[in-house]
Write a structure and sequence with these properties.
1266 residues, disordered C terminus, glycogen metabolism, GH15-like, 42% helix, calmodulin-binding, KPBA/B_C, kinase activity, alpha/beta
Length: 1266
């Protein structure tokens, strides 16, 4: 018999170790592993990690087999792995109903369980009795399923199982916006069952999605039906969120050792090598000890100070765990494997304990069991009698092992690391999908752009400009469809009737998904980007906005494209991209097309050409789930309909798999399916044109009366609104409008915005019973002179009868109210009446597909959001990702059912997300973004610059185009100068004002000025002299730039000082009053009459206060201040020093807590002075002062500084008018307007008042008063 080689003997030794520590515990029936002898339940995460050593040993035997017995051993080990993975699969498949529910709810009650019965695969605890929602556990299973399948194991055996795995992909693809309990099952570190977004979960989900994409679960024996598909956009959402979070682990954990599994093996989820190193060093520096790494700072698990009788911690109790956190050897096993993968066999020698390699250090703390087997303990804890010594000198006390012995998860990783370190396994063998190369730089991306003309007429217009393109018809047999159709198609993916799985939820299709070509039943499809789909949301109606979004998408593709082949964008030119005459391309669009042809646009390399030229170089995907089944049909046999049934079918029914009973050879089922979807989403023309004269003037204010006025004006007393005109268009106050009596009691306004009492007061057509005659309202649609009046009538019908009421217009039953509103939306879109577009979008509840993603982007950048105006409870806070429907409901509620404000809030949220992705520095030290106040600032800035009333400013704001709205928002949050250009134009048989935002150049003039506005003004006057009206959209009348003295000059506003007028009254609750137009205008006129330099610091403080801006490092300094006093009091609200015992200085939770106290101050410039006061206090923390008092009244220090300022200015000769005090706060208005530095700066007086306030606590030689 042949003798064993040395390697074979060593492998046999590892086989005995695996058998004695892992495999002997494996259940003979289910294949599952219990957590330990004392914990008989099987955790999903622990099972997957525990079996990795078995898998690795099987691969080592397969490669190093000396004899047949070794091959048999390899097979046995591999089948043990398959048995366990299939056991976990059975556990999860028994909860298929939860998978289905969770795809839509992302709720903790609908998630898969985290642990199961080892012997039966059944659940062991109730849905609410454990922190089951652990996205990283499910993701880890899927990741290793992919790696093991790629290594040659056959784990998935049927198409039903393939469909289930596909639905698990849908389950985890929303991980980037799902707050869970995390890898430690406790959620927030207070252990009170609070979920939070965890970097370890997001990173593991990202890795699993990438690993499974295009993977055949049947391995070499599979076919198209067993391939898993992942949408690349979901992967990139996880990537961007992960990148923004690291090295922070979550909102309550500034660092967590579990992130090692994300930045290295097994996930390799981070592509930035610098960020990987920063995160690793953060963990080693802050968490590493002599026995491993702590899980996170102030982790109380198994410490002597933890109360074993309580499952939660008191917030102030967390300070007790500092410096005595248990240390886990497990994390050194991760670092050993990481060292092998990175090629650094002596990883972190300098940072390692006592200068040892991690492997040597780890072997020094393993426990020897029976037969000399080395076992990894769960953790090392400080002995109870040595706690005080460890407090005084961290990492000096000898610790004792506690918990599971061995920790099977850690034992497995240790064995796997040893196999790799000794050369039995190469990195590529346990990473066959090559995830370890995530940080390797990717090749440059060239974006292929195919410009298409919607019609032959548009093709001719482009030809005239020297741009040669094809039409949609010319590219046949390649088919061009909008992005929403691809979303509908993907909704069929993973559907399984037997398991009641409905497939992928209908979601927004991102640019990565629409930049591929798709093979569907032997046809090639290309899909246009989502942002040009005008039926989805009104942003696509603005050509400037389309160009801006195209630029953003091209840049995004260049930085995020990771697939084989080049991305291909199909960019159609439609009639809406022509100018008002329809004979020329819109100038912005034309300039963009020329830049695309030049080969460089928005920082991206571009290649323009025909679709047929890109077929060989594009990324192409075969959607095999759309292939015909055994009967030659795409759809399930149980749903059979004739072609005549098309009109009876709802689009949603089609998404659930309806079949057309027709000969497959002569009937293009896919084409009919797509045509049907398109027909169901394109409105038919049913609405009569607007009448030339006459109309229903008494309905003009009805729409605003019913919903907006009932929700705002009638509630003003309760809600403390200072100026109702900020939210209600000013025309409802005009004398020419029909007067409407408002009900004093808000209770009469029900949740649907319907008010029968209000209808009784209005002059509406009545039937013989006294009820509103809806048929008469329908008749009025034929004679309405304007689109606005048609919208008013349709809104009344929508309110009274609902969206699905058949109007009987021109026929029976006639189009529904919703269909007429949809058609009106398209008509109004052609006229670019933005206020009306926004309003109808609100009625129709148009779905802004990117809204929840925008919200999640903002939250993941460690920003909390508020919607609505203060105070609470009207102002709603969003601190965790929530589903789209819940988010819209919250915004509607905070907007008090005001449709325009609700839709504008959504729009602003999307713009903020765009900016935080591209320019996160704009949001530095802003932890709470208050969208209601931002909208208020935007309106008041327009009021200030246009010298108009609040109501007119609101109307102007609502009439801004999306691109101008986005530009104004940018100038507000960036502090850059801007100008406002105002003109008039004829729209819909009336003359309206048009406002646009102009960028101010280095010379202090706007771009229109530099282009020669005098000539333009002269031409416009000639048009006026010609008389009459012109085509829709043509500018008429005097073209005027507002804001400065010249007849044709543009206002320039120095945003070192931006004005802001509070809507929220500074008076005490119950004493608020509505400001009339006169008083608001007088404020603005008073501001406008001052020296341009006067008021600039007050305006800046107002803006920073409204935007919650604070200096860099402010919150960390506040944390240090709290350690030297009993608390800070701000206007009666106390920030106690006990907060520091709960939270660490770098926690986002602490910053948000401080901010919530400051936000109790309603006046923003006063709030900002309080911030400056605290900033002066923070200067004391570096002095050798043990305490600076008990509870420090911050406002008292500010008022002391104000008195010092007042007395000094009085002594210098200032009169009472100059030293006028703010009646709400008692602060001199001149102090508000003082620069921080200088002889009379605020810091001078604040420093003096702080010194006086804490004088008794300062050292004798500390300071002297000047």
């Amino acid at each position: 018999m042949r003798s064993r080689s040395n390697s074979g003997v060593r492998l046999d030794g590892y086989a005995r170790l695996v058998q004695q520590t892992i495999l002997r515990h494996q259940d003979a029936v289910t294949g599952l592993l219990p957590a330990s002898a004392d914990h008989r339940d099987a955790w999903v995460r622990d099972n997957v990690y525990s079996i990795l050593a078995v898998w690795g040993l099987g691969l080592a035997y397969r490669k190093n087999a000396d004899r047949d017995e070794d091959k048999a051993k390899a097979y046995e080990l591999e089948q043990s792995v398959v048995k366990l993975m299939r056991g976990l699969l059975q556990c999860m498949m028994r909860q298929v109903d939860k998978v289905e529910a969770f795809k839509y709810s992302q709720s903790t009650k609908d998630c898969l369980h985290a642990k199961y019965n080892t012997h039966t695969c059944a659940t062991v605890v109730g849905d609410h009795e454990w922190g089951h929602l652990q996205m990283d556990a499910t993701s880890l299973y899927l990741l290793m399923l992919a790696q093991m399948t790629a290594s040659g194991l056959h784990i998935i055996h049927s198409l039903d199982e393939v469909n289930f795995i596909q639905n698990l992909v849908f389950y985890i693809e929303a991980a980037y916006k799902t707050a869970d309990f995390g890898i430690w099952e406790r959620g927030d570190k207070t252990n009170q069952g609070i979920t939070e977004l965890n970097a370890s979960s997001v990173g593991m989900a990202k890795a699993a999605l990438e690993a499974l994409d295009e993977l055949d679960l049947f391995g070499a024996k599979g076919g198209p039906q067993s391939v898993i598909r992942v949408l690349s956009d979901e992967v990139q959402h996880c990537q961007s969120i992960l990148h923004s979070m690291l090295p922070r682990a979550s909102s309550s954990k500034e660092v967590d050792a579990s992130v090692l599994s994300v930045i290295s093996y097994p996930a390799f989820a981070v592509e930035d090598s610098e960020l990987v190193e920063i995160t690793k060093q953060e963990i080693i520096t802050k968490l590493q000890g002599r026995y491993g790494c702590c899980r996170f700072l102030r982790d109380g698990y198994r410490t002597p100070k933890e109360d074993p009788n309580r499952s939660y911690y008191e917030p102030a109790e967390l300070k007790l765990f500092e410096n005595i956190e248990c240390e886990w050897p497990l994390f050194w096993a991760y670092l050993i494997i990481d060292g092998v993968f990175s090629g650094n066999m002596e990883q972190a020698r300098e940072a390692g304990p006592a200068g040892l390699e991690y492997r040597e250090a780890l072997e020094g703390i393993l426990i020897k069991g029976k037969n000399g087997v080395r076992l990894m303990p769960e953790l090392y804890s400080v002995p109870p009698d040595k706690v005080d010594e460890e407090y005084r000198n961290p990492h000096t006390v000898d610790r004792v092992p506690m918990g599971k012995l061995p920790l099977m998860w850690g034992q497995s990783l240790y064995i796997l690391g040893c196999l790799m370190a000794e050369g039995f396994l190469a990195p590529g063998e346990i990473d066959p999908l090559n995830r370890r190369f995530a940080t390797v730089p990717k090749p440059d991306v060239v974006v292929q752009v195919c410009i298409l003309a919607e019609t032959e007429g548009i093709k001719a217009v482009l030809k005239k400009e020297g741009i040669d393109v094809e039409t949609v018809a010319d590219v046949y047999p390649i088919r061009v469809q909008p992005a929403r159709i691809l979303s509908h198609i993907y909704a069929r993916l993973g559907r399984n009737k037997q398991m009641s799985l409905t497939g992928r939820p209908y979601r927004h299709m991102g640019v990565l998904g629409t930049s591929k070509l798709y093979n569907i039943r032997k046809n090639i499809f290309t899909f246009t980007p989502q942002f040009i789909d005008q039926q989805q949301f009104y942003l696509a109606l603005d050509n400037n906005m389309i160009v801006e979004m195209l630029r953003t998408d091209l840049s995004y593709l260049c930085s995020r494209w990771r697939m084989t082949g080049q991305p291909t964008i199909t960019f159609p030119i439609s009639h809406t991209m022509l100018d008002e005459t329809g004979s020329n391309v819109h100038p912005t669009v034309l300039a963009t097309l020329r830049k695309l042809q030049d080969g460089y646009f928005g920082g991206a390399r571009i290649q323009t050409g025909k679709l047929s030229e890109f077929l060989t170089t594009s990324c192409r995907t075969h959607l095999s789930f759309m292939d015909p089944g055994p009967e030659g049909k795409v759809f399930a046999k149980s749903y059979e309909f004739s072609i005549g049934s098309f009109e009876e079918l709802d689009a949603e029914e089609w998404l659930h798999g309806l079949q057309i009973a027709e000969d497959a050879d002569t009937y293009d089922e896919v084409a009919q399916y797509l045509d049907h979807l398109l027909q169901r989403t394109v409105p038919q023309s049913n609405l009569p044109p607007t009448a030339q004269r006459g109309g229903l003037s008494r309905f003009r204010a009805a729409v605003h009366t019913t919903r907006d006025l009932m929700s705002l004006a009638s509630k003003a007393k309760d809600l403390h609104i200072q100026d109702v005109g900020m939210y209600v268009p000013s025309k409802i106050f005009q004398a020419s409008q029909q007067s409407v009596k408002l009900l004093s009691s808000p209770d009469q306004h029900d949740v649907d915005g319907k008010s029968h009492a209000l209808h009784a007061e209005m002059n509406l057509p009545r039937d013989k019973d006294g009820n509103v005659d809806c048929k008469a309202l329908v008749d009025q649609l034929r004679v309405c002179p304007t689109l606005q009046e048609q919208a008013d009538v349709l809104y009344m019908l929508h309110t009274l009868k609902g969206p699905d009421w058949h109007t009987g217009l021109d026929s029976e039953p006639g189009p529904t109210v919703k269909e007429l509103l949809t058609e009106l939306y398209m008509r109004v879109g052609n006229t670019r009446q933005w206020a009306l577009i926004r309003y109808i979008s609100g009625i129709l509840k148009k779905k802004m597909e990117a809204l929840d993603e925008a919200c999640t982007d903002l939250l993941s950048h460690q920003k909390h959001l508020t919607v609505g105006l203060p105070p609470e409870p009207r102002e709603k806070t969003i601190s965790a990702p929530i589903p789209y429907e819940e988010l819209v409901r919250l915004i509607d509620e905070a907007s008090e059912k005001n449709l325009s404000v609700s839709i504008l809030t959504q729009e602003i949220m999307v713009y903020l997300a765009m900016y935080i992705r591209t320019e996160p520095v704009l949001f530095a030290e802003m932890f709470r973004i208050r969208i209601g106040l931002i909208i208020q600032v935007m309106a008041t800035e327009l009021a200030h610059s246009l010298h108009c009333s609040a109501g007119e400013a609101t109307e102007n704001l609502m009439n801004l185009s999306p691109s101008d709205m986005k530009r104004l928002l940018y100038h507000i949050i960036s502090g850059k100068e801007f100008g406002v250009e105002k003109s008039v134009r004829s729209v819909d048989s009336s003359v309206t004002a048009a406002i646009s935002i102009c960028e101010v150049g280095a010379v202090g003039a706007t771009k229109p000025e530099r282009a020669g506005l005098v000539k333009l003004k002269s031409e416009i006057k000639q048009v006026r002299a010609g008389g009459g009206s012109s085509a829709l959209g043509t500018r008429l009348g005097e073209h005027k730039l507002l804001g400065s003295s010249g007849p044709c000059s543009c206002g320039v506003f120095d945003f070192a000082a931006v004005s802001m007028v509070l809507v929220l009254s500074a008076q005490s609750p119950g004493h608020s009053e509505l400001l009339g137009k006169g008083s608001f205008s007088s404020i603005l006129e008073g501001q406008g009459s001052k020296d341009s330099r006067q008021g600039q610091w007050q305006r800046r403080r107002r803006l920073d206060g409204a935007l919650n801006r604070v200096p860099m490092g402010f919150y960390q300094q506040v944390w240090k201040v709290l350690q030297k006093c009993h608390g800070l009091s701000v206007e009666g609200f106390v920030l106690p020093s006990s907060t520091t015992r709960e939270m660490t200085p770098g926690e986002m939770k602490f910053a948000v807590h401080v901010e919530s106290v400051l936000n109790r101050v309603s006046q923003p410039e006063y709030r900002q002075l309080l911030v400056e006061t605290i900033l002066v206090l923070t200067m004391l923390v570096d002095m050798e002062v043990h305490t600076i008092g008990n509870i420090i009244a911050v406002e008292k220090i500010l008022h002391m500084a104000n008195d010092l300022f007042y007395e000094e200015q009085k002594a210098l000769g200032a009169d009472d008018h100059m030293l006028e005090r703010d009646p709400a706060t008692g602060i001199c208005c001149l102090l508000y307007d003082s620069a921080p530095s200088g002889r009379f700066g605020t810091m001078t007086y604040l420093s003096k008042s702080v010194a006086i306030y804490v004088y008794d606590f300062l050292p004798a030689d500390g300071c002297s008063m000047q």
